[in-house]
Design a protein that fits this description.
Layout: H1 10-19, H2 26-32, E1 35-47, E2 54-59, E3 68-71, E4 75-82, E5 91-94, E6 120-126, E7 131-137, E8 148-154, E9 173-182, H3 187-194, E10 207-210, E11 238-240, E12 246-253, E13 259-264, E14 269-274, E15 277-284, E16 286-289, E17 294-300, E18 309-316, E19 325-330, H4 351-360, E20 377-388, E21 391-396, E22 399-401, H5 408-413, E23 446-448, E24 452-454, E25 459-466, E26 478-482, E27 487-494, E28 513-514, E29 516-519, E30 523-530, E31 535-541, H6 544-548, E32 552-557
Parallel strand pairs: 1-4, 3-8, 9-12, 11-19, 20-25, 22-23, 24-32
Antiparallel strand pairs: 1-2, 4-6, 5-7, 7-8, 9-10, 12-17, 13-16, 13-18, 14-15, 14-17, 18-19, 20-21, 25-30, 26-29, 26-31, 27-28, 27-30, 31-32
Main location: secreted
Organism: Sorghum bicolor
Signal peptide: 1-33
Length: 579
């Protein structure tokens, strides 16, 4: 069954299109919209993405999964059959706001019950905005097993063939680049380790993959006979270019842990898009990209065409123990690896280099969507590592998040108030005098599945404050992703955020809209969004292990405006037997 809204949310779509300056009438958009249908079987298969054979989560036998290509205004329908045999499943459409279809967000425990083994479930949603997005599993730590892919939404054309809301840059052709990190241990081993006392950390990835391929040193394989360096499944991807032409590289990071630095040897990159929004162009030698982010960069094929060049992916923000991930840029179609050494990127601990690139990412002058001038509500979140009964957890304002057994959307729409804690988590902490450079003075935390209820239509600021972990002199980068919304990135800082001082420095002129943003070590990031999309939406660190360990919150807004829920999303928790 296609999970479409009972009544088309025309007013929401029309408001959205106007807000994006696309000047498309709803009737015109619907007249040209198509339905893109896909049928997927998700199963475990033995794969060798980095030459080491292991069980991988696949879509129709492949990892990464197929790229979804659509045009703005199209409806995407994906019929998913769960053939994982012993595991539940949910798939999140990362960056798609699900306006009018909150049940299709694909977040187990928040918007749906999981798809049971052997069951089939159809996601259906409208892709309302052009740009580069992704999809991935959103059940447990399943994303790490290989269930992910890219979504590309093209700008709509009018019946005469003209492009509506033409992009503010030109190029001759394009390539998709999907970046990931990869472990030889299973997600089950990782999850059990994280939940153990003492905790067993997942460790650094064994390999970095580009479009699902990497290369592990077979001499270091833990199990003899499991690594085959000649397997075609780990052959380096080749990106073909023609001399003199300009190429758009759509880059998506679906890493489970690693912040990455991406470089194309010998070719400067002009950043033009971030998370589906146009950027004031700026030129970089290499691009810092965090889990859950997407970028488009332009390169000119203007180097010596008689040799090949490396595409390189390197770990930053963590002391790397993983070899450079590589692919090949070829002017001739030759697959031979370049004779040069792959670029190693900037120093992994150069926080200010990454910070400055974040600050440089602002809206394109012709595509600025000004934020509301002030917020109705401010939520200040202190991000700390803590302990609960000996278990290592992550917490916000001393509360570690856990998912309820009954999805919030189902519970709230059906009045099942006993399904989760009705007490909201704290929305502030005693920031005066708090030392973000020291381990938390109180290492203990509590656990809750409470959520924040937002007044529909209100403007909300969230300030994410990073701080030292349990161990001294240790703080990590956290990429935070908001479901159901884009937010304006108002500002970044290093050190403790002061509500009486720092809001005066917010960028209210040309802030970029994004759905995922980095919080740098010992720093803060401030975002603003409008609570105008009825539903229940997760906001969490996009590092798999960190969300698993409690680094997340949930917002509810306008739940009474949500249409009748499809019965297919029920059947778990307090709705058992209601599937």
């Amino acid at each position: 069954m296609a999970l479409l809204p009972r009544a088309a949310p025309a007013r929401h779509a029309q408001r959205l299109l106007c807000s994006l300056f696309l000047c498309l009438s709803l009737s015109t958009l619907l007249a040209r919209a198509a339905t893109r249908r896909h049928e997927w079987e998700v199963s475990y298969q033995f794969k060798s993405p980095d030459c080491v054979r292991k069980l991988s989560a696949t879509i129709n036998g492949q990892t990464p999964g197929p790229t979804i290509r659509a045009t703005q205004g199209d409806t995407v329908e994906v019929k998913v059959t769960n053939s994982l045999l012993t595991e539940n499943l949910a798939i999140h459409w990362h960056g798609i706001r699900q306006i009018g279809t909150p049940w299709a967000d694909g977040t187990e425990g928040v918007t749906q019950c999981p798809i049971l083994p052997g069951d089939t479930f159809t996601y259906a949603f409208v892709v309302d905005r052009p740009g580069t997005y992704m999809y991935h599993a959103h059940y447990g730590m399943q994303r790490s097993a290989g269930l992910y892919g890219v979504i590309v939404v093209a700008v709509a054309e009018d019946p005469g063939g003209e492009v509506d809301g033409a992009e503010p840059f030109a190029y001759d052709d394009e390539h998709d680049v999907l970046l990931n990190d990869w472990w030889h241990s299973s997600t089950h081993e990782q999850a059990v380790g994280l939940a153990s006392v003492p905790m067993v950390w997942v460790g650094e990835p064994h390999s970095l993959l580009i479009n699902g391929r990497g290369r592990f040193d077979c001499s270091a394989a833990a199990v003899p006979g499991t690594c085959n360096a000649t397997s075609p499944e780990c052959a380096a991807p080749v990106f073909a270019v023609v001399p003199g032409k300009t190429y758009r590289f759509r880059i998506a990071s679906v890493t489970s842990l690693s912040a990455l630095n991406f470089e194309i040897e010998g070719h400067e990159m002009t950043v033009v898009e971030a998370d589906g929004h146009y950027v004031k162009p700026f030129v970089v030698k290499n691009l810092n990209i965090y889990s859950g982010e997407t970028y488009s960069v332009l390169i000119k094929a203007d180097q010596d065409p008689n040799r090949n060049y490396w595409l390189a992916s390197n770990v930053v923000s963590r002391e790397p123990a993983t070899p450079t991930g590589t692919a090949i840029l070829s002017y001739s179609g030759d697959r031979a690896p370049p004779s040069t050494t792959p670029p190693t990127g900037p120093a992994w601990n150069d926080t200010m280099y990454r910070f400055q690139q974040s600050v440089a990412t602002v809206a394109h002058p012709a595509h600025v969507e000004p934020p509301p001038p002030r917020a109705d509500r401010t939520i200040l979140l202190l991000n700390t590592q803590n302990k609960i009964d000996g278990h290592i957890k992550w917490a916000l304002n001393g509360v570690s998040f856990r998912l309820p057994h009954t999805p919030y959307l189902v519970a709230m729409k059906n009045g099942l108030l006993g399904a989760f804690d009705q007490r909201p988590p704290p929305e502030n902490y005693t920031h005066q005098g708090y030392d973000v450079y020291a381990p938390p003075p109180n290492p203990n935390a509590t656990i809750s599945d409470g959520l924040y209820r937002l007044q529909f239509g209100s403007v909300v600021d969230v300030v994410l404050q990073n701080a030292n972990m349990l161990a001294a002199n240790k703080c990590e980068t956290h990429p935070w992703h908001l479901h159901g919304h884009d937010f304006w990135v108002l500002g970044y800082g290093i050190g403790r955020f002061d509500p009486a001082v720092h809001p005066a420095s917010y960028n209210l002129q040309d802030p970029i809209l994004k759905n995922t943003v980095a919080v740098h070590p010992y720093g803060w990031t401030a975002v603003r969004f409008k609570a105008d999309n009825p539903g229940v939406w997760a906001f969490h660190c996009h590092i798999e292990a960190h969300f698993f360990m409690g680094m997340g919150i949930v917002f509810e807004e306008g739940i009474q405006r949500v249409a009748n829920l499809p019965p297919e999303i029920m059947g778990c928790g307090k709705t058992k037997g209601g599937h």
